[in-house]
Sequence to fold (204 residues):
Amino acid sequence: MGNKLFRYLQGRRHIAVVILGGLMVTGLVLLVFSPYYIHEWVEANRYVLMWAEIIVLAAIAALFAVEASKLRRQLESLSEAEKREMQGSAEMYNFYDEKGELKLSVKPDRLYYLEAADNYVKIHYSNGGKIERLMIRNTLKNIEWRFRDKGLVRCHRSFIVNLNKVQVLRRHEGDVLLDFGEERIPPIPVSKGYGGKMLSQMAK
Fold:
């Protein structure tokens, strides 16, 4: 019963903290402003109330400890993935899923672009003369941050391109497009929000 209650509170920890805190405040208010006979009852049951207060404080501390542990695990997972990225070969792009598991290693000259697909990222690359695609569960935001200053540049909310593979930047009917010079790879649009950053990267 205790474990079920704890799991229930863990999933609703913010509400539980508010309720427990409210009960403590209510108890203090009643203790200060209550009639004399309540003071007598409190005095007679002070040990029970003391242990009740200890249990309430312990429950709050446990809820915060669970939250801190969860956050620490997330930071450690990110740190490990980043460490593997730094230790990996400089000649490879290593792509991990959201759990930090390596899903693909590809040479920079084989990678074309990455495309957002709901909660996944579709990686477009060449292998054995063929254009292949691999879906991994991650976000473009995470990948953009991990590969900052490594040639992968965000050009659109749905696309990251390998700038070293871009052959032409051109305008077509008011749109700015990136062309890889490969018939099997469609031009990638550049949105206005990322246009300035893209041009500055290409000017380096």
